[in-house]
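re: that chain from earlier
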Amino acid sequence: MKLIIIDYGAGNIKSIQFAFKRLGVEAVLSNNIEEIKAADKVIFPGVGEASSAMKMLQESGLDKVIPTLKQPVLGICLGMQLMCNFSEEGNTKGLGIFDVDVKKFSKAVKVPQMGWNVIYNLESELFSGIKEKEFMYLVHSFYAEECKESIATTDYEIEYASALKKDNFYGVQFHPEKSGVEGAHLLQNFLDL
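^ sequence. v structure.
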């Protein structure tokens, strides 16, 4: 299997690579458009700030490529948020794959949300064998609103979409590569799609 992690300068890439290595798959880092298009599966990571990450995607032409991919694509954390229509972080226009906006948590809660929280309302084969209310590891100040494309929910001040799916595109707000056994289970489910 050819698994590509998109390398565009905004990634927690090493920990994702190690997580797949533990599952017996060598993930290749690449920003080569032809290589990404030819992959069996694609991971779209992201750590950092939305507007600067989007700028890096635009400079490499990846902003045009990612929405056209036909194989399973998994956006992680900021990667998922960039797949949405718009983010309040830096007033950033997203890739428009998921029809939802990304908002900032209010000052009523500690921001960023950092640590373990539960996911529930699990839908999709991405969560096959994962029980309701399992804990996953999150670090984020912005969230995707609940929407028709939501396949998991988390509650932090409000209920928000902690995972999204549309066609071959999946997104998770949490970090499966840092979420222990259940996170590894989700990555294996992605490999099995």
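Helices lie at 13-22, 33-38, 50-60, 62-65, 78-82, 180-192.
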